[in-house]
């Protein structure tokens, strides 16, 4: 009996020592599993790295397109391809009033609570405070944004005429940067890495992109408004957007470590491009 007790004591001692030893390559195995698991850039483990587009893709990856609509580039609702910064005669732009401002009327669903409305209005103010574009509650205007908590975060591109839905699902899309992103689509802007000159500034890593999402990385025939490429645009995809295996799908150049995309709201260059597109400061 005494020897049995001693043997149990030795075994417990060995187990206690083993529990304090590091497990070889345990971190590497875990990270490998995370890498294989990751399908969208929203799954970056460091939440601080999330961009507005990462969050949009995270929400939209779980939704079906509403009947009659399709989506390109992840969040642009369309039944045909067009870009307001390339549309003939600026027919896709919101009109400028005689006082030099561009008023974009909107209605907002009563399903939003107070915090949701504050978040969306913050996205509006982040644009309005630096441009001549002003978002105003609709009174009688024929063309207006109908902001609804539908499934996903998405918008049509530019003014389509009449009532046009802009979807900001709650709570998934309730970031002011996400609201600003979709509002910029409604003003006519495509994603930054879709610019016609993007290959001078980023490398698209096609082998890392999910096969059925490669079309989201097509370049557009854009008028780039004589503006520099903006790695910090709220309209830029995140580094791992539509990643198949967790590897990067977009690498900046010449410095591959330049941060791309963000979630805080329009960058200084985003606001500059809005001002150029809408001729802010000049009356037409």
Outline of the structure:
Zn(2+) binds at residues 181, 185, 191. The protein has helices spanning 2-20, 26-37, 52-60, 114-128, 176-187, 268-277; strands at residues 70-72, 76-78, 102-108, 133-137, 144-148, 153-156, 163-168, 202-204, 250-252.
Question: Which fold does the CATH topology refer to?
Answer: Collagenase (Catalytic Domain)
Number of strands: 9
Mean model confidence by pLDDT: 84
Give the C-alpha Rg.
24 Å
What is the end-to-end distance?
A: 101 Å
Strand content range: 5-15%
Q: How many structural domains does the protein architecture include?
A: 1
Please give a structural write-up.
This protein has helices spanning 2-20, 26-37, 52-60, 114-128, 176-187, 268-277, and strands spanning 70-72, 76-78, 102-108, 133-137, 144-148, 153-156, 163-168, 202-204, 250-252. The strands form 2 sheets. The chain has a 7-stranded mixed sheet. The chain has a two-stranded antiparallel sheet with strand order 8-9. Helix content is 27%, strand content 14%. It is α/β, with parallel strands linked by helices and 284 residues long. The radius of gyration is 24 Å and the shape is globular. It has a single domain, classed as 3-Layer(aba) Sandwich (Collagenase (Catalytic Domain)).
């Amino acid at each position: 009996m005494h020897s049995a007790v001693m043997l149990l004591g030795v075994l417990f001692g060995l187990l206690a020592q083993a529990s304090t030893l590091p497990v070889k390559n345990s971190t590497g195995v875990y990270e490998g599993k995370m890498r294989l698991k990751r399908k969208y850039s929203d799954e970056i483990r460091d939440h601080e790295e999330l961009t507005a587009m990462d969050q949009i893709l995270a929400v939209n990856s779980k939704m079906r397109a509403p009947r009659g609509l399709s989506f390109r580039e992840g969040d642009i609702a369309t039944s045909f391809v067009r870009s307001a910064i390339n549309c003939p005669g600026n027919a896709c732009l919101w009109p400028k009033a005689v006082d030099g401002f561009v008023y974009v009327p909107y209605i907002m669903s009563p399903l939003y609570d107070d915090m949701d409305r504050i978040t969306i209005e913050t996205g509006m103010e982040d644009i309005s405070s630096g441009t001549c574009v002003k978002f105003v509650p609709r009174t009688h205007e024929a063309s207006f944004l109908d902001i609804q908590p539908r499934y996903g975060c998405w918008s049509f591109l530019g003014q389509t005429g009449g009532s046009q839905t802009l979807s900001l699902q709650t709570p998934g899309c309730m970031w002011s940067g996400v609201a600003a992103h979709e509002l910029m689509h409604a003003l006519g802007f495509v994603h930054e890495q879709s610019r016609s000159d993007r290959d001078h500034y980023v490398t698209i890593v096609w082998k890392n992109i999910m096969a059925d999402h490669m079309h989201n990385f097509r370049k557009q025939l854009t008028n780039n408004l004589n503006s520099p490429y903006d790695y910090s645009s709220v309209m830029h995809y995140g580094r791992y957007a539509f990643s198949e295996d967790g590897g990067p799908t977009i690498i900046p150049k010449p410095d591959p470590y330049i941060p791309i995309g963000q979630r805080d709201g329009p960058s200084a260059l985003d606001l500059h491009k809005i001002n150029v597109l809408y001729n802010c400061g000049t009356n037409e």
